[in-house]
Design brief:
alpha/beta, Alpha/beta knot, Trp Operon Repressor, Chain A, binds adenine
Length: about 230
């Protein structure tokens, strides 16, 4: 899989992709992440990539030309399944969206900034708009890192134990059950006996019940229409 991220602030994105499973995925050759600095596509003497909004109002708008040049260059090199714009008014990210995107070949993610992008970019180039939640960040970079992380960890081979992504919270519209590790008793606080029993069936049942209990308590909305409740 290949992910191309277009941004006005490339430095913000270097950290997340140099660390942890994102780096492992890259080192294993399972994903290629390319970060493109929008300023390199500024075709004017001041290297500018933003301008005032027509009609007035506070805030700068990312202009269409550098974005067009960057997206068009990428598209001339390969086909893309989606060109995604990170924006608070997009569809809200959930596990289902990440699952679907982990199956595609190539995606472009455009990070918004300032007051946003010229609307014609959204009309002409963007195939999908995604928000990571009902709050406004100062730019789309952190949102793009969140989206890319949630996709990349699902690519087979990225996580050591492939089943661990399947048992994540939200995969069955259920929150994950609690987990424990050594020691079995710490300052008198004990790990539930069933987890020490070695009885696989009982452990599975316990985990499912805990998932259900936790979901009912914390996120009852997830259970609407969920088979586990029936
Ligand atoms: N850019 C600014 N805020 C955002 C959000 N909540 N989701 C995605 N992109 C954003």
């Amino acid at each position: 899989m290949r992910i191309d991220i277009i941004t006005a602030l490339p430095k913000i994105l270097q950290g997340p992709f140099d660390q942890s499973i994102l780096k492992i995925a890259n080192d294993k050759g399972l994903v290629e992440v390319h970060i493109h600095d929008l300023r390199e596509y500024a075709n004017n003497k001041h290297n500018s990539i933003d301008d005032y909004a027509y009609g007035g109002g506070a805030g700068m708008v990312l202009t269409i030309e550098p974005i067009d040049l960057c997206i068009s260059k990428l598209k001339s090199e390969r086909d893309y399944d989606e060109v995604i714009y990170m924006t608070p008014d997009g569809e809200k990210l959930n596990q289902n969206i990440s699952n679907g995107l982990s199956l595609v070949e190539n995606i472009i993610i455009l990070c918004g900034h300032y007051k946003g992008v010229d609307e014609r970019v959204r009309e002409q180039f963007i195939t999908r708009e995604i928000s990571i939640g009902d709050y406004v960040l100062s730019g789309g970079e952190l949102a793009a890192a969140v989206l890319a992380d949630s996709i990349i960890r699902l690519i087979p081979g990225v996580l050591n134990d492939e089943t661990s992504a399947l048992t994540d919270s939200f995969q069955d519209n259920l929150l994950a059950p609690p987990v424990y590790s050594r020691p079995a008793k710490y300052k008198g606080w004990k790990v539930p006996d069933v987890l020490l029993s070695g009885h696989e069936k009982n452990i599975e049942t316990w985990r499912f019940e805990k998932s259900l209990e936790r979901t009912r308590l914390r996120r009852p909305d997830l259970l609407d229409g969920n088979d586990a409740e029936k």
